[in-house]
Amino acid sequence: MGLIKHSVSFSVATLLSRALGYIRDALIAYHFGVSQVTDAFFIAFRLPNTFRRLLGEGGFNAAFIPVYAKDIKGGREKQFLHSVFTYYTAVNLLVTLFGIFFAEYIVSLIAPGIRSRPHFEIAVFMSRWLFTYLFFVGLSSFFMAILNTKGVFFVPAFAQAVFNIVFSLVIAFCSHWIGFYSLIAGVILGGLAQVLFNIPSLLKADVKLGFSLILDKDVKLLVKRLLPSILGFGVAQLSFFIDTLLASFLALGSISYLYYANRIFQLPLGAVSVGMANSLLSALSKGEDIKPTTHLAFRFVILISLPATFGLITLSDHIIALLYGRGRFLESDVLTTSLVLQAYALGLTFFSLQKVLSSVFFAKGDTKTPVKASLFAVLSEGIFGSFYAFVLKWGVVGLALGTSTSSLIGFVYLFWKARGETILVGEVLKLLSKPLIASTVMSVFIFPLKELMSKPSYTAFIIPFGMLVYFFSLLTFKEPLSLLLLSRLKSFIKQGAEP
To answer: Which backbone phi and psi does 215 adopt, to 5 degrees?
Structure first.
C-alpha cells in the first residue's frame, strides 16, 4: 500500500496545483479571451512548459532515481549529487540562453502558420522573456527528482501550485495597467517562487548541493540512461508541438482552444497517472516485484481514469463554461473548447496506462522501448491529426482526436512488448469491466441531471454526486480496492468514535 500512499500524496499536491492552475487560466481567459495575444502567449509558453514536463514528470526522473537510490544505499550520495548538479545546471543554463537568442527561429519552427500574421512578433517577444522561466523550472525539476527519491512527493508536486499562485496574483493586479506584459511577469516571478519553495524540504532531508566536475561511473551511467530517457519523453512531448504546428495553419484562436481544453484534460492525467508512474518507478527501483506492483498500478489508474473520461465527455460544456465562460471568453469559445475537450478525453485511460508501462521499462533500465512507443504515437498523431483536421475538415477538434488516437497506438505497442511480463490481456479486461460498467451507470445519472440543472455553477454539485454514484456502483460490483477503501473508512470512523 506504500505505492498508493505515495501516489495519493503526489496526486493530492498535483490536484491542488492544477486547481490553482485553472484559476490562473480563468484569469487569462477573462482578461484576454481567445485572441492574438493568447495564441502568441501559448506558443511562447509551450517551450518552457514542455521542458517542465520533460524533466519534472518524466525523462530526468526516470533516469536519475534508480541511480541515485543505489548511491544512497552505497554511501556515495554526496559525490554523485554534486557532479550531477554541476553538469545539470550548466546544460540548463546553455539551453536557456540558446532559447533567448534564437527565439525567432524557434517560433517559426513550431508555429510556421503564424509567420505572416500580426501576432508573430508578439510571440517572439514573449518567447525571449519566457525562456528565463526555463532555467527556474529546470532547477525545480531537479529538486523534485531528489525529493522523490527521498520519499518526499507532496512538496515538489505542490511547488507548481506556488507558481500558479504567484502568476495569478500578477495577472489579477497588473493586467489592467500593463496588459500582456503581466503574462510575462507572472511566469518569471512564479518560476522563481517555485524554486525557492523546495529549499526548506531539501534542507530538512539533509541534501547538500555543491559543485564537482568529476565524471565517475555512476554519472556516466546516468548520462547513458538519460539521453534515451529524455529522448523518449521528448518524443512524447512532440505531441504538443505537432498540435501547435498544425493549429497554426487553422483559424485564429485554434492554439488557444487546444490549450484551454488540454489544461482541463491534464488534471486527471497529471494528478493520477503521473503520480502513479513516479511512485511505481520509485517502488520498482527499490526492488519490489514487477508483476503484482504493476497489477496494482493498473487497477488504481483504471479506477480513476475511466470515470474521469466519462465525466469529461458528459459535462464538458458545463465545465468549460464554469471555468472560462466570462469576461472576454465568449459563448462560441465555450462550445468549441468543450468539443476539443471531449476529443482529448477519449484517450485519457490509454495515456495513463502508457505512463505506467513506461515506468516499468525505465525501472528495468530499458529506455529504448518507451522511446519507440512514443515515436510511433507521435507519428500517428501527426498522420491522424492532419487527416481529421484537414481532410475531414474537423478543424481543431480533429487535432485533439488525433492525439487520442495516438495514445491508443502507444499503449498497444508497450503492452505488446511487455508480452505478459507485467499484466495479461485477460487481466486488463477484467480490471476494466467493473469500472466501465460503474462509469456508464454514473453517466446515466449525471446526464439528465446536467440537463435539469442547466447553470454551469451546478457542476460543482453534479461532479461530487457523480463520484458517489460511481463509488457505490463499484461497491455493488464488489470491486476490491473500493471495498478496501470502505473497510479503512469504517475502521477510521470506529477508532474516532472510541473514547
So the answer is: -110, 85
Cβ-count burial of 269 within 10 angstroms (0-12 exposed, 13-18 middle, 19+ buried)? buried
Rounded to an integer, what distance in angstroms lies between the CA atom of residue 218 and that of residue 230? 17
Classified as helix, coil or strand, 119 is: coil
Residues 6+ apart with CB under 8 A from 278: 6, 7, 10, 57, 61, 148, 153, 359
- DSSP element (H, E) containing 383: helix 368-386
DSSP codes, 141-153: HHHHHHHHHTT--
Q: Compute CA 67 distance to the chain's CA centroid, rounded to the nearest angstrom.
A: 24
Q: Cell numbers 508541438 correspond to what residue?
A: 241
Rounded alpha-carbon distances, angstroms, from residue 260 to 12, 70, 309, 324: 22, 41, 17, 9
Distance CA(171)–CA(184), nearest Å, equals 10
Residues 24-77 have pLDDT tens digits of 999 999 999 999 999 999 999 987 777 766 655 556 777 777 787 777 777 777
3-state secondary structure (DSSP) of residue 421: coil
Looking at residue 1, its pLDDT comes to 47
Residues 6+ apart with CB under 8 A from 490: none
Q: How far is CA 295 from the centre of its chain?
A: 22
What's the DSSP call for residue 457? G
Q: Which residues contact 240 (CB under 8 A, 6 or more apart)?
A: 46, 50, 262
List the grid coordinates of 170: 500578477
pTM score: 0.82
Q: Can you tell me the distance from the alpha carbon of 438 to that of 443, in angstroms, rounded to the nearest whole number? A: 9
Give CA–CA dist 8/325, Å, rounded.
31
pLDDT in tens, 251-287: 999 999 999 999 889 877 766 655 555 556 556 555 5
Alpha-carbon distances, residue 455 vs 264, 313, 322, 333, 443 (angstroms): 19, 17, 9, 17, 18
CB 464 within 8 A of CB 446: no
So where are the chain's domains?
A: 2-479
Q: Cα 293 vs. chain centroid, distance in angstroms?
A: 22
Question: CA separation (Å) from 347 to 2, 171, 341, 354, 408?
Answer: 28, 32, 11, 11, 7
Residue 173 burial class via C-beta count within 10 angstroms: exposed 0-12, middle 13-18, buried 19 and up:
exposed
Name residues whose C-beta falls within 8 Å of residue 431's C-beta, 6 or more positions apart in sequence.
298, 299, 302
Cα–chain-centroid distance for residue 373? 18
Q: How far is CA 187 from CA 167, 253, 326, 341, in A?
A: 6, 21, 23, 25
All three cell numbers of 34: 481567445
DSSP, collapsed to helix, strand or coil, labels residue 210 as coil
Contact 134, 190 (CB under 8 A): no
Is residue 116 exposed (0-12), middle (13-18) or buried (19+ Cβ within 10 Å)? exposed
